[in-house]
Amino acid sequence: AQALKLAATFPTPDRAVAAALRMREAMLGLNDERQRDDLLLEIGIHEGPCLAVKLNDRQDCFGQTVKIAARVRGLAMSRSIIATGAVVNDRETARLLESAGLSPLPQRRALRGIADEAMLHELPRGRRGPAPATGAATRIMKTPRPRRHARASGSPDRARRCRACPRDRPR
Question: How many Å apart are CA 134 and CA 125, to the nearest integer?
Fold first, then answer.
């Protein structure tokens, strides 16, 4: 599978959540247009201070906040948005979620490398359409293509088509 991991910073938690909701809807729309379901999005959002460094015209962020955002993203499944309690409990974020008709689903989870369990909230999909109008870790993935299976006899370099694989079916 091909995957792209990226991190973004936002001035406030509600802006990170609004961007995440718009990204999810845009990705679903793109999949609908293509009539395929192979572009996936996993988003983790956490709020807190970080150390920002600008080097060679690139900004990079470091610190516990960034680490937690990445760990939260690692728990997200396809098309899910997971946010920490610090994000969901923000007054503006709560207003945004309410206007979008979303009720966060709370869950206690352990995060690798973090001593205490964290209260996380999954933001389920609400009504279809764009989200109303700081930190987030995002991973955009393309689902893996079926691999060709090597022949039972003969050279493993020579592959045969597999009837079970959608790409290998006769057209």
Answer: 21
CA dihedral 81, 87, 89, 91 (to 10 degrees): -110
CB burial of 69-91 (b: ≥16 within 10 Å; e: otherwise) equals bbbbbebbeebbbbbbebbbebe
13/21 Cα distance (integer angstroms): 12
Single pTM value for the model: 0.70
Rounded alpha-carbon distances, angstroms, from residue 87 to 25, 83, 117, 119, 166? 20, 6, 16, 11, 41
| Residues 117-157: tens digit of each pLDDT | 889 999 988 654 444 444 555 544 444 443 433 333 343 44
Exposure pattern of 99-122 as b/e (b: 16+ CB <10 Å)?
A: ebebebeeeeeebeeeeeebebbb
Would you place residue 113 in the very low, low, confident or very high pLDDT band (cuts 50, 70, 90)?
confident
152 to each of 1, 146, 149, 158, 168, how far by Cα in Å? 25, 18, 9, 10, 17
